[in-house]
Every structure is written in C-alpha cells, then in structure tokens.
Known about the structure:
Layout (H helix, E strand, L loop, with lengths): L6 E6 L4 H11 L6 E7 L5 H8 L4 E3 L7 H14 L4 E4 L8 H6 L4 E5 L11 H8 L3 E8 L9 E8 L6 H24 L3 E4 L2 E4 L3
Parallel strand pairs: 1-2, 1-4, 2-3, 4-5
Antiparallel strand pairs: 5-6, 6-7, 8-9
Amino acid sequence: MSAASRRLGILLSGRGSNFEAIAHNVLNGRLECEIGFVFSNKPQAHGLARARELGLPCGSIDSAGQDRAAFDAQVADLLQQNRVDLICLAGYMRLLSGEFISKFSGRILNIHPSLLPAFPGLDAQHQALVHGVKITGCTVHFVDENLDSGPIVLQSSVPVLDTDTVGSLSARILREEHQIYSEAIGWILKGNYRVEGRRVIKTHN
C-alpha cells in the first residue's frame, strides 16, 4: 500500500493546532496520506469544529464519567470502521487503556512539548522553566503502556531564554511541533524505519 493511500486517525481534546497543521500539509500535498477520521472526547472541542469546517469525517463521544476501557473500545471501533492505519494524538488529554494500545500496537504516535525523557506528563514547559534548563523542545514518539515513554521518532530543540514565560516558551515549541509531527508521520507511513529496542532508526527503503 502506498503512503498516499494510508489513512490517519487524529485524536484531540482541545484547540487542535497540531491537527490543523497536519491537515494543512495533507491538503496541500506535502504529506502524502488522507485523514480518515478525527475524533474528540470533548464534543465542543475547537479542533472538532475545524474538522467539520474542512469537511473531514469526524465524531465525538463525551468521556466524562466513562470507564476507560469501555470508552476506548468505542473509540477503537470508530477508528476501525473508518479504516485508519496510523493514529496521531494531537492534544488528546486522556491516558489510553492497555487494551487500546495493544490493539493498535506500533501504530500510535504522540507529540510532547519537551525533549523526552525529560519532563513527561503535564506542564512540560513549566517544568523546563522551574528546572532552569537552557534547551528544551518537542518529541514525536510511539505510544506504549507508560506515560510519554515510547520509542522516540523525532525531536527538535528550542532554546530557553532568560526572559521566557510559560506562554512564550510554549509558543516557540508549538511552532516546532507543527513542523516535526508531519515530517515524522510522513516517513512512518512510508515504512522507512525500524525499531531496535527503544531506538527508531530511519532507513531508505
């Protein structure tokens, strides 16, 4: 199957800026694939509204009060019905169940606003400022059963300025996220990689 015929599933919970960057690259041909389904666990998410505006197949299920495994089973069914090949988390603010990760093993990507393994979890930009690091950035990684711990696909560094606030640092990191997420998706879809332990090695198949 060619990369162009592969289908992305995008999971988001909020504004969906990484989703919009991916969608832009798909629509202008820089990313050779199609968006098969956009899902949100927040029915009022701005990113979901943008997906509708773009005419993309999308849907939502409110996750409030739902059992994690049962909720994820519903999401998995939607993704399978829409023949999704690769799942991209784009600000999806839920931990995935082990069953969901096993079902799509090796086919879930996430982007995180730090140079993992530094500063996993929430408020990574705040963590970077509190720790006084001089360089941070963002990481695209495969999702496994542990938080922000899967094999690293691609990273981009961002200097931390003495004048930075969480807001200014977050904005500069986000610009890098918009670049590297689509780049990582492109070569993963082409199969130009292999995983050796924790290492994701780019190949030239």
